[in-house]
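[Q] Does anyone have a clean structure-token version of this?
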Amino acid sequence: MIDFFIVNVVLPTIDTTLHAGATTLELVVAGYGIAYAVLLVLGGRLGDMFGRRRLFLAGLAAFTVASLACGLAPTATILVLARVAQGAAAALVSANIAGTTWRPIFLVNVPVGIITLVLARRTVPETRSANPLGIDRLGTAIFGVALLTLMLPLMEGQAAGWPWWMWVLLAISPVAGAAFVFVERRAERVGQVPLLPPSMLRMPSIRAGVPLAVPLYAAYGGFMVVYADTTQDDLRINALDSALALIPMTAAYFAGSLSSSWFVARFGARVSPLGTLIQAVGLTVLTGLILASWPRMGALALTARMLINGFGQGPAATTFFRVVLSAVPVERAGLGSGVLVTTQQTSLALGVAMLGTLFTALSVPAVLGMREAFVLFLAGQVVIALVITVFGRKLPDLR
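[A] Here you go.
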């Protein structure tokens, strides 16, 4: 999760040093989420079959090599390819160590990965399932096609001038989506365990929570990319200060997440819509700041407004996880969590692709300009939060 978002604070610097362009930068962020979403459940089932320790070590080794490739990438294309190959880990903010600018955020993963590999080989016991569920090869492949044929045109279509093959990809995406639903239903009907079991998606808790989780995480993914782009390119806040302005938001998110159990015990699932309502208030206050002070505002002015967002997002997101998994039988907990995290990663990538591309198109001076586009973007975020607030009141009571 850290590696999904850590790259946001150095996107303008990557653009400057590698001449990447806005759409390629979106691929740097979203490509990671797409690969994560498509392969997540598959990786878990491979662990069941071949040994979880073995797969953990193999994945960690691949992630470490991919992090090295990201940190040494000489071109934007190689960075995108290496980024897609990554997993997740901790990273630095822009310290410009010995003139390396953005590269340490990836290179710091290498020693972490090596140390973890050494420790894991010594301490992590090998386990595997006595009755592995098997691999849904066809479902995984079609799911990947459906995501890629949707995401690639959304992110690259405008920059490429919308050539005919982009429209072909967009036309393929809903067909692949329908084929995925058909294949998954057929697999479950014949006694197999598909990538995303339709019967599990029909469970009341999942049916109530997942449709709201999609806009929640899509909005969050889009916000993080647009925030980095706006603060560093137009407000001239450096990467370090831009990241520091997010610390109170993350601290509030953390505190809100930890306290969500206490709130849920007393107020049930209403905690989630209350959280998104608080988030809507924070976004409204941030919009007011933009309208009143643009472009003369520093990281400190942003910090207080972001604090409100974090305190709303924490309980909302945590409670969504609780709602979705609350009625999943223990023996299917792995499948339930796989469905949820796949939805989360797909939504994050979708938010980067759709909201990031829309913002880029609107922010050019000939259309709206950066200030007006950012205000419109924040207004859209407020609307999404309010919609989730209204429909979130129907979530099942966890008490």
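[Q] Thanks! Anything notable?
[A] The mean pLDDT is 79.
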